[in-house]
Amino acid sequence: MVDVATVMDLKKVDRLVDQTGANPESLIGILQDIQREWHYLPIPALKRVSERLAVPYNRVWAVATFYEAFSLKPQGETHFLVCEGTACHVNGAREILRTFEEALKIEKGQTSQDGKFSLETVHCLGACAVGPTVAVGRTFHGGMNREKVIELVEMYGEKKGGGK
Amino acid sequence: MRLTSPAQLDKVRLDFLAEIAKFTKTVSVCGGTACQANDCRYVADAVKSELNRRNLGGTVRLIVTGCHGLCRQGPIIQINPGEIFYPHVKPEMVSRIFDESVVGDRAVEEFLYRDPESGGRIRRASEIPFFRKQTRTLIGANAWRDPSDIRDYIAHGGYTALKKALFELTPENIIDEITKSGLRGRGGGGFPTGRKWSSAAKAPGSHKWVIGNADEGNPGAFMDGSLLESNPHVVIDAMVIGAKAVGAQSGGGFIYVRNEYPFALASIEHAIKQARDWGFLGHNILGSGFDFDIHINRGGGAFVCGESTALMASLEGKPGEPRAKYVHTVEQGYHMEPSVLNNVETWANVPRIINEGAEKYREGGSDTSAGTKVLSLAGNVVNTGLVEIPMNRTLRELVFVICGGITGGRKIKAVQAGGPSGGCIPESHLDLTVDFDALDSAGAMLGAGGIIVMSEDVCMVDIPRHFVRFLESESCGKCTPCREGLKELDRLLTGIVEGSGSIDDIALIEEICEWMRDASLCALGKSAPNPVLSTLRYFRDEYMSHIVDHKCPAGVCKALDRLRT
Q1: How much is the pTM?
Q2: Whole-angstrom Cα distance, residue B530 to residue B422?
Q3: pLDDT, tens digit, for every residue of B548-565?
Q4: Candidate CATH numbers 1.25.40.10, 2.40.128.110, 3.40.30.10, 1.10.1760.20; the one for domain A78-159
Q5: Residues of B in contact with A138 (CB under 8 A)
């Protein structure tokens, strides 16, 4: 896994800031764009946003740590998001999470050593009617069970970074 | 094309109707979130390649739409004329469907919906009990409208309410009509919309704002996401009307969308862009002299941002911490200026009220809860999906008639309504009406309309613990009762499900619930005890069984097994 933060292109951050008119009110949106680009919030990017918006760094930090959607740790090439909303919970989401943890040999919130996979939970994806649901990027997988978890891990392992 | 006068609206409508009249068939593929999770994109690809292979592009119209409703049976294809309904479609079935139903006018019998009761096949969607027993005013046309084409909305009466509001009605007329309609907030509060608008209109301030809430942080609810996916323009239509009513041309509009909803977000982003291009947003809307625009804010996945003051803090680019509401947001909201925040489903009811009048609107629903409510049904029920009923039907009808009862022949244990702020309603109370008031009496609430049906295999101590843990992670931490109370509740409930609980814990749990309810700053903390108290009220024996016998009646709490042997 390359540490993106040390080599990241701050011009790209500038572009994302400018896209919204460099408005302090757009702070959350800008951080979301950064997260979408790098799949986490690198510290140099947060510092740059603070300078560009003239928003104190502690406020940028407050926002980055308040919202569930932001991650301060790099994610794996494939990031599995297991839904633990109520409907998924009553249909066995706990078992799905456990199966991922076994198959990937990492726990919720961790990234595998080779940087290929990371695993996280989400409160609801809105696909409650067909849960348990797992998201990989913008691709949703419904009706999950143990076998389908193993299939997904194999499929994305072969694709290498697919699904982002 | 930017429309500059109301007369042009009619021309767009007629042109588009003429354009689609050329097609002899319409194939509608459901592209709602649930069907996306069932790989409907491969079905849509298969339909596209059949169209190309057979060279039918000029005579057959393909639309990828928002939610058709019966999510459990997805991916779904429907074909018009004939309203032929195909559930569980796989790409390899598409060629045969084309042979029989697109080129021919027959149905492929064995692909049709199978009625679980009679075992017979049903051809038309409207004959399937799930659909037949509903009143689908807001979502009924989902299968036949292309949400990505603004002309489809216009062709079916869209933006005529906006036209009427901008050219024929005064702000007072609009507020009067909304007030008379009895419309109440669909996000969970049930607050009278007319009264909210009237307060904002009267509030002093040089800038005013209207906001659509589609944060839908409540796990188990997916109505708002589905609405934005299937009919985004109805929300824009309504927000312009609301802006005129409260005087928000001086400020502007926002729609706050949950970022975990990629399909809903893309749909409303596209719709707003189209509405600007066509002159329904921006400067001098339809040549009326009225200016108004809407911006999208993506939520950060914080449940507390469903609370109005927290949502407005988030709009300002700050952490979503609520403040005490001595002064309401209709007077001092976004940037301390008058702000009207309505749930997107509330907004979606507005154009119909303006077009058809308050009287007609009141015909549906109960005396105190007018109109229909869109509900999302999930959990251990046969037909999961998106349901719309007038607010005078019972929970029993909803679960057993519309949704076909419990899966796997199991017994029902509870209906969970209102999410983390709601409660679990036992079978003995299923004759309660699904409206804003009746469920409260049972210690639950309708909330936003997310309903999870739970079978006997669900543990009534594990569920409140699930909600408490959710809220513990979502509490903003600003006030002590909520922050510390949830932590303690989690500790006590975990003790019970793991076998270290004592009978005295129950009294302590009830005491903590009481002070959280009285002393928390915002609705998140005040309503957090509901899942705990409602299960203690109706399922106390399950708590006792865990504590005294170290036995989980549902067989969920495995940690207890070790203690018994």
Answers
A1: 0.95
A2: 6
A3: 999 999 999 999 988 876
A4: 3.40.30.10
A5: 262
